[in-house]
Request: fold
Amino acid sequence: MLKINNLHASVEDKAILKGINLEVKAGEVHAIMGPNGSGKSTLSSVIAGKEEYEVTDGEIFFDEENIEELSAEERAHKGIFLSFQYPVEIPGVSVTNFIKTAINETRKAKGLPDMPANEMLKLIREKSELLEIDRKFLSRSLNQGFSGGEKKRNEIFQMAMLEPKLAILDETDSGLDIDALRIVASGVNKLKSKDNAVVLITHYQRLLDYIVPDFVHVLYNGRIVKSGGKELAHELEEKGYDWIKEEVNA
Amino acid sequence: MNLKEKLVSSFMAFENKIDVDAPVHEIRNEAIKIFETKGFPSKKDEAWKYTSLNSILKENYSVFPKQENALEFSEVRSYMLHEMDTYKIIFIDGKYSSHLSQTTHDGFDICLMSSALNNPKYRLVIENYFNKIAEKDGLTSLNTAFATEGAYIHIKKNKLVNKPIQILHFSTGSEEAVMLQPRNLIVVDENSHVQIIERHQSLTDNPVLTNSVTEIFANKRAIVDYYKLQNDNKNATLIDNTFVNQKQESHCFVHTFSFGGKLVRNNLHFYQNGERIDSTLNGITIIGDKQHVDHNTLVHHIEPNCESHQDYKGIFADNSTGVFNGRVVVNKEAQKTNAFQSNNNILLSDKATINSKPQLEIFADDVKCSHGCTIGQLDESAMFYLRSRGIPEKEAKALLMYAFSNNVLDSVKIPEIKTRITKIIAEKLGVNLGFDL
Reply:
């Protein structure tokens, strides 16, 4: 589904990604871990198509198509979803209206008519129950005055509504208390299928107790320096990142 | 002969048509002298540093409309708030249209300036209020000298006006170029409440220069809620001079929505003559092309324990220019004043300009006054957020601009106006989002 070859990317002439190789197949869950400043968020932004990042070398294939020239919205239309670490506040636009716009713009791009209102309502009801989201929450302005937990739950709600093929969750666990973490994780687990894939970007192992990855990769200094199974996450939790840094620098 | 000379020499001809024995004639005589001395403002005047009328004053305006024109409701319906029941005072090329209007004398007077100026029944109100708060600058004096028509609204004590009042000025463009001098007087007595909507609309691309003067008197505990909707054609120029005099415990809100016209200058000046007064001045400006909108505001805090709130948002595209000059004066006696001012702007192109100038003159020592001004572009990370959800660039921009001006829109108290404004905003931004913004 996603294939990244020797990806180099920089922002304002500063090289951040220095040769990433990664392959994610349908049905898989990958975790990307690493110390602060290793390039985790940059990698997720580059995959989602943030314009400020310049790809200087390498390729990103999504469903065997090179997506380098595609805009962020075109990538979204193809089924790439990024859950933000810091979702943006949009006063005056309700959660419901925002998600309606996102869904109908995606349908428009595929040549489909707007989703009928009753179908949309049904979908919203179904998905908000999945994430234990209160009705009143849906009529509030998008992310405005939301707590950290509400913002993240809202991100996963949007993911549930958009049903992406590839979901990249950037630090979704940060700022979540244990109850919110459980709800968010169970939402992600219920959405998982053999046809889609999840990439978890995280600093800590605790999210991985709830969403169990098939593969764990360690990103350090713009490169994936170690890959393994879920046990690698436990090792990192116990020993920290220093031993990895030492291994790399040796 | 330039426009100033033409106007001054027209005054004599004008005198032949009006009642020179009327009490206002002395005021007119004095006003034309002031205009003769001061003339039109130029860039040398500090208050007009960023706005030039030069090219606009070069047109050969007809000063008195040559003929009377009629319009059918269907021709102007779209410019009116027709979704709701309202009083209407409608003018076509400066002349009252009884056919389109809906006035009343039942409990309050919602009628015409011409009848108020000529009918002895209104003499006392005219003597007490006409030209009492209007400033004595060139443009306002020019209006005072020539003005014969406009809205006259007098809400007597303890009245809640049951529906909003629309004041609409249409110009038909039947003449090459026309200059209009509408004059409105609004007096709201003790404990009364009124909502007013004002709009100037040209129906063709022929040049129109409107030099409008409105005096608003909000007496003790009165509430005045006023909306100015400016979305005129590309050759229409509006100079709106609005003066508000507030008495104790009155609340006055003026919203100015500037979306169109060639050049718009809003002189909006508030005088707080009493304690515990609240004044609110809000605005949204969204323009493009070579349009120019200038907001010149003044809030003069004269007595203690009053508040004022100014919130102006501006979005400027293409080669458009904006000016915000917000002046707040707090007299020595006006202790415990709370005065807030904010002016936020987004420039969508490298060639768009905004000149923002807060001007605080505070002579009291126990006050809370703040001002803030921002000029920026659309937030790139917010754009990325929206686009990553599949919302295309243009629609994403529109959503962010809407969000930017949302708090001003939220303070609109008439839902039909809010709906109308959001529709105009969506139209300006060229988007259809599938829901009412």
Observations:
- Chain B has a mean pLDDT of 93.
- The two ends of chain B are 50 Å apart (CA to CA).
- The interface with chain A takes residues 379-382, 384-393, 395-396, 399-400, 402-403, 406-407, 409-410, 433-435, 437 of chain B (CB under 8 Å).
